[in-house]
């Protein structure tokens, strides 16, 4: 009887020990969190004394360039911010807690450096960082905090060389209320982390840079900042096909109006149609380019210059048509200049004789002389406007885009 009771008591004791060990094992992390949070004050800097500085290592991990808004002068990127610092109030001995070396705590429960994006174009403080992200805490007291999301920064875009433009945008991260003597901000790398970067279909990321700076506050103190620079270049193929090539083709098509016979009556209509087409291109560019009066884009200047050339060609077309139907006597000096000089310059010959020599025949009618003068002016305008448009096009799209 006594042995049975003793066995029963031993069984109960062993079962209680097993249950207690199981309970302790399952709640070791809970015990650790309670141990760390007991008396923890997240509003105080994690230092032993006021003279110590909390050093925060910062690393920006760029995922993608989401949008470049030329109209509103904004750059939007998706990135992660990796921040590491040491919190002496979050240290523990892993041997006392079943070997646990790392735990995860809500970011709102631990001390965080009050970093803000100084040139944010949407919101100054991003509340989702502390609401949805957590911090990794290691037994040495190191805290790793990696919030991520969309960063929209104000960026002054220079559209002068559009669509062959390069842009430089900055993301300025600063400690807002803690001075450099309290919280020191360091860049973990001199470049942006691009390990997980996804290429953008419109922009190439040419170079990045991370530089430590200081921001002067309203008082005599300095506040630490990091200036992240992104240098991007536009991929021009889409705009070359959609905008640039049609503009160049239209500008040369306008020259064909001088080859249309004056009797057809379609010359002036064609010139007007080409000018209206360039007006449509200006409206398309108006939806793309910012309303900035500092520097006009090259392509807009090109369209304006070509429209001026087209206006001059329209005036020339009207004058040539008028000459074609003129039936009065040709002044001798005009006849000599056009037939003798311009005729040879533009190569208007009949056999081995120039037009001037052919027109020495007294039997030639006055109207025939004027038609031949109009033909010489047609050839002259074709040569002059072809050279003008070619030079303007080469300067605008082959020289200026590649000069500083």
TrEMBL record:
Key word Cell membrane present: no
PANTHER family reported for this sequence: NEUROTRANSMITTER GATED ION CHANNEL
Signal peptide: 1-21
UniProt keyword annotations, A-Z: Ion channel, Ion transport, Membrane, Signal, Transmembrane, Transmembrane helix, Transport
The keyword Repeat appears for this protein: no
Cellular component aspect of the GO annotation: membrane
Residues annotated as domain Neurotransmitter-gated ion-channel transmembrane: 244-351
InterPro entries assigned to the protein according to its UniProt record, in alphabetical order: Neur_chan_lig-bd, Neur_chan_lig-bd_sf, Neur_channel, Neuro-gated_channel_TM_sf, Neuro_actylchol_rec, Neurotrans-gated_channel_TM, Neurotransmitter_ion_chnl_CS
Native organism: Dimorphilus gyrociliatus
Record's subcellular location: Membrane
Domain Neurotransmitter-gated ion-channel ligand-binding: 29-236
Example of a GO MF term: transmembrane signaling receptor activity
Lineage of origin: Eukaryota, Metazoa, Spiralia, Lophotrochozoa, Annelida
Pfam families on file: Neur_chan_LBD (PF02931), Neur_chan_memb (PF02932)
Membrane disposition: Multi-pass membrane protein
The protein's name: DgyrCDS1008
Assigned protein family: Belongs to the ligand-gated ion channel (TC 1.A.9) family.
Membrane-crossing segments per the record: 237-260, 267-286, 298-321, 380-402
Main subcellular location: membrane
